[in-house]
């Protein structure tokens, strides 16, 4: 049985010996990077700088959420706003793997500047076991390149520290609970963010649309779970499809966007079953999305398991 208390005690001791200079970590507000940051902060205090890069590809309210979280956890941190840089790098790009590479590279460029400024010698990453397994760590073929395992350390000449690399998600969550980090029950969110939930080119207009639609999906599903209509799924979100379809607005024909709603049950993301969401909740999602976003004329629900589909649409 995994024991979070002895894991933390042992790890903090190891980290104190391992890190004898300044360190930097990119935090996303997700469980993995936050737990890694708190562990290293326990070991070396303010010699660790936590950096949150606002790519502009975040969910609604995410930057404010992370800002509060890092402040409450007492970390030494900085928020870097870089939406313009990411959007111009992504202009005209439609291929999902190219999007991931561009986002990964832009991320490295932004992060590198901060690391140089603060004189870091160590790079902390919140890599966990499934990340490197799914990224072709020798055990599986590469399915999607997960940018958080990308070329950061080699390029930056930093020593890599990965305190969670042997843990699985449920173990990381138990460490988070033990450390009192309020991120333990958050759903996973992909590094490339909303960019892989806009099929085709990423534009500011589409980002605003999917950000709003996604927040409606999250709110209505969470409300449905609170009202006892359903269990909260493992992951649930909206996807903007590259097809337009005909609809009516008043007595006029409209030609609008299609939003797909995706919700799945899973343990570790490797396999998944689509969630059997009650129709009452699905209907509220659909009505709210089309009322709030008149550019959307159709909302569909994804009924596919993984395999054969993946959880994300790109
Ligand atoms: P798929 O779509 O491959 O997703 O079934 C499995 C899990 O991984 C997340 N995911 C990503 N996470 N960078 C990430 O950090 C990525 O590029 C990426 N692609 C997928 C996905 O949200 C799901 O939890």
Structure in a nutshell:
The protein is 41% helix and 19% strand.
Protein model, in words:
By secondary structure, the chain is α/β, with parallel strands linked by helices. It is built from ten helices and nine strands. It has a five-stranded parallel beta sheet with strand order 3-2-1-4-5, with helices on both faces. A hairpin with a 7-residue loop joins β7 and β8. It starts with a helix and ends in a 13-residue tail after the last strand. Residues 138-149 have low confidence and may be disordered. The chain binds xanthosine-5'-monophosphate. Xanthosine-5'-monophosphate (XMP) binds next to loops.
Largest sheet: 5 strands, parallel
What's the helical proportion of residues? 40-55%
- Average pLDDT works out at 91
Task: Note the gap between the termini.
Answer: 36 Å
State the total count of DSSP E strands. Answer: 9
Strand proportion, as a percent range, falls in: 15-25%
Q: Class by helix and strand content?
A: alpha/beta
Cα radius of gyration in angstroms = 20 Å
- The main sheet orders its strands as 3-2-1-4-5
Distinct ligands, ions and cofactors found in the model: xanthosine-5'-monophosphate
Q: Please mark out the parts with pLDDT under 50 across 5 or more consecutive residues, or reply none.
A: 138-149
> Count of DSSP helices?
10
Which shape, going by the Cα principal axes? globular
The secondary-structure element order is HEHEHEHHEHHEHHEEEHE
């Amino acid at each position: 049985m995994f024991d979070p208390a002895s894991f933390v005690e042992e790890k903090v001791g190891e980290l104190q010996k391992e890190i004898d200079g300044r360190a930097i970590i990119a935090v996303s507000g997700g469980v993995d990077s936050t737990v890694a940051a708190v562990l290293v902060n326990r070991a070396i205090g303010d010699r660790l700088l936590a950096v949150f890069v606002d790519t502009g590809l975040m969910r609604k309210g995410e930057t404010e959420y992370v800002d509060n979280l890092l402040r409450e956890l007492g970390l030494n941190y900085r928020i870097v706003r870089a939406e313009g840089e990411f959007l111009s790098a992504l202009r005209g790009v439609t291929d999902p793997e190219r999007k991931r590479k561009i986002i990964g590279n832009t991320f490295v460029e932004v992060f590198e500047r901060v690391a140089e400024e603060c004189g870091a010698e160590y790079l902390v990453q919140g890599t966990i076991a499934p990340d490197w397994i799914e990224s072709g760590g020798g055990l599986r073929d590469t399915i999607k390149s997960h940018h958080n395992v990308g070329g950061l350390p080699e390029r930056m000449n930093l020593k890599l520290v990965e305190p969670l690399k042997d843990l699985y998600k449920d173990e990381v969550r138990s460490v988070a609970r033990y450390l009192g980090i309020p991120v333990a029950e958050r759903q996973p969110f992909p590094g490339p963010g909303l960019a892989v939930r806009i099929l085709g080119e990423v534009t500011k207009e589409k980002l605003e649309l999917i950000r709003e639609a996604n927040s409606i999906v999250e709110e209505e599903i969470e409300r449905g779970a609170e009202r006892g209509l359903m269990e909260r799924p493992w992951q649930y979100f909206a996807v903007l499809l590259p097809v337009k379809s005909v609809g009516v607005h008043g007595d006029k024909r409209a030609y609008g966007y299609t939003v797909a709603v995706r919700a799945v049950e899973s343990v570790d993301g490797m396999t998944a079953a689509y969630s059997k969401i009650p129709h009452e909740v699905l209907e509220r999602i659909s009505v709210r999305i089309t009322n709030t976003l008149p550019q959307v004329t159709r909302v569909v629900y994804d009924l596919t398991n993984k395999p054969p589909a993946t959880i994300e649409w790109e």
